[in-house]
Amino acid sequence: DVGLRDYQTSHRAIQLPGLVNIAAFVPGLVSRDSDDLERVTKASAASGFSMIRVMPVAKDGSISDVKSLKIAQQNGKRGAYCDFNLSITATSDNAHQISHAAGEVGSLFIPFNHLSDNISKVAAVQAHFEAWPTHKPIITDARTTDLASILLLASLHNRRIHVTAVTIKEDIKLIALGKQKGMKVTCDVCIYSLYLSQKDYPGCQFLPTAEDQAALWEHLETIDVFSIGSLPYQLAHFLKQPTGVAVGIADALPLLLTSVADGKLTIEDVKTRLHDNPREIFELHDQVGAYLEAEIDRPYTLKVADAWSPFAGKVMKAAVQRVTFQDQVVCLDGSMLAVPPRGNDMSTHGAAPPTVAMT
Amino acid sequence: DVGLRDYQTSHRAIQLPGLVNIAAFVPGLVSRDSDDLERVTKASAASGFSMIRVMPVAKDGSISDVKSLKIAQQNGKRGAYCDFNLSITATSDNAHQISHAAGEVGSLFIPFNHLSDNISKVAAVQAHFEAWPTHKPIITDARTTDLASILLLASLHNRRIHVTAVTIKEDIKLIALGKQKGMKVTCDVCIYSLYLSQKDYPGCQFLPTAEDQAALWEHLETIDVFSIGSLPYQLAHFLKQPTGVAVGIADALPLLLTSVADGKLTIEDVKTRLHDNPREIFELHDQVGAYLEAEIDRPYTLKVADAWSPFAGKVMKAAVQRVTFQDQVVCLDGSMLAVPPRGNDMSTHGAAPPTVAMT
Ligand SMILES: [Zn+2]
Ligand SMILES: [Zn+2]
Ligand SMILES: [Zn+2]
Ligand SMILES: [Zn+2]
Ligand SMILES: [Zn+2]
Ligand SMILES: [Zn+2]
Ligand SMILES: [Zn+2]
Ligand SMILES: [Zn+2]
Predict the structure, then answer these.
(1) How far is B330 from chain A (nearest CA, A)?
(2) Do the strands A291-301 and A225-227 form a parallel or antiparallel pair, or are they unpaired?
(3) Sorting pLDDT into bands at 50, 70 and 90, what band is B334?
(4) How many angstroms separate the CA atoms of A207 and A107, rounded?
(5) CB contact under 8 A, B118 and A151
(6) A84: which residues sit within 8 A by CB, 6+ positions away?
(7) I need a labelling partner for A108 at 20 to 30 A (CA). Which of B108, B122, B165, B303 fits?
(8) How far is the C-alpha of B265 from the C-alpha of B274, rounded, in Å?
């Protein structure tokens, strides 16, 4: 890994290893001939992300079988500006099918609230635990009593589980308690959830309340990963703003580094949650020659460029200056250079158990 | 304890220690000047039960605070024909109040499905765990994903928990798995659930399906306790039959002993689940001089007496012949003798931690 080169200098130029967005939302993921995946990788690369893990739930469907996986793989062949991997989503009755696709995807996503009735939820979750290779990651969006439920099932089946896009105070407290008691649980919080709440956007249920948000900050030690997720897209949709595929991506690092400037986070907090932990939890390959340079403490007013942002007009205190991918500069001061798409579909990386890993 | 005296003789006369119904439903429990509690104890004593644990949820309210507890206690002073103890029910916001009543009741009942919204469910359950004395039993009626949820919370808070009136296949399987993994969980199944299903009464959601019922029998080892519960009352109501307070009580032991006659259960299976385990799980006092005699293998057609029964007209192969309470015969061949009510409110028994137990 590339370390922080001149972190201690007065002008606060920093270098970070290529970042990982563990939950990238690609609207047209399973739509035939969609270039959304290509465009998301481009926006990600421009913002310092060298790897995205694509959520299997998209705007018009999800990756839930071999057929939908094929469409997403085909879309991935149009070209990608950073590496990516695909996941598959559990449904009430596709436990057997996912076992066939396991070798071709990075993880299994169990969207608890989309499984049918309560009885089959418990049965379905257990069936998926049985069908999914023990060494491969499982992610869920379960909340409140469903979250407690899936944590128990994971514990009884000796599976580690990652909870994505936590927003609720009770949930982060429950995860903290579970970790304290030795459960194999990790979690991420969407970056927007740290900076926007229902106080800013009344009625916006998918954002934390102000009280939830305070609890998220208080439990920073419990948060393993910062993610982008589908929250920016949902917010744009809720506010009837343009729902471009890049919404939320360029904001991610400037928001976090502005908190570094304000003393609310350290650079290490950011690096741990956008590089170290994502790689460890999701067994991602090391990306040699991927890093970014950013500057902290030079305030500017955010202007909307390619994508709508709720932070337009707000003062930011950090910006990404240069992004390097595969030892080649791909972006300077927010402008993508004319480089070919060199990202790879890394979905099969780590497909075999660690003992016989093919790297 | 009184053992089984002539179990091995040809005519199959057996003796059992006084039975415990761990979930007695008393419709008018918290109605002022109701004699329902007295009448339930009388029907219980006549059927071989020397102790009933009264469910805190009644027809027109529940025991959820000191005031409703006082009404139930007052009703208990009208006289009881067997010993009884009272419980208190958790609500979304009475965690503090129950801590005041803890010394006066036998257990805390957490009716998971009656707690308000999902967020406060997890918070409320945890608040109750914190407020309730660690040595006192906690009972829940949680189902499916809620059951998994409360099992996790109990495990994280190091509390043992009893799941009452299990009907669903997934639930008994989950409890079996939990026990196998060392969780401190016990459960009961209503006796009616072993003999009646939705196949007999289509649309009767509170009964198991035929498949559920088969799973209950398959998991007999996982079932710690047989209970009467509110199921017989619910069934009578559903079928628009008279909902007398005694419904289901007289049927309990004849049904189980008929299964003994049929070779589906052993007498030890019955004794364990109606005496030994109830006493151990709920830390009940030993009732010296309480026992019953029954005869197995003399078939007769069940006639409806005091209470409606779905088994009227069916052939039973066992009957209670004589019930002794406090070394006095109180019932002969189903007819209650003219004895005064000598049962006691044992709610405060075991109120202090075991180390300083007052027996
Ligand atoms: Zn690295
Ligand atoms: Zn500089
Ligand atoms: Zn197959
Ligand atoms: Zn398993
Ligand atoms: Zn005894
Ligand atoms: Zn005889
Ligand atoms: Zn108080
Ligand atoms: Zn606790």
Answers:
(1) 45
(2) unpaired
(3) confident
(4) 25
(5) no
(6) A24, A37, A41, A51, A52, A53, A54, A76, A343, A344, A345, A346, A347
(7) B122
(8) 13
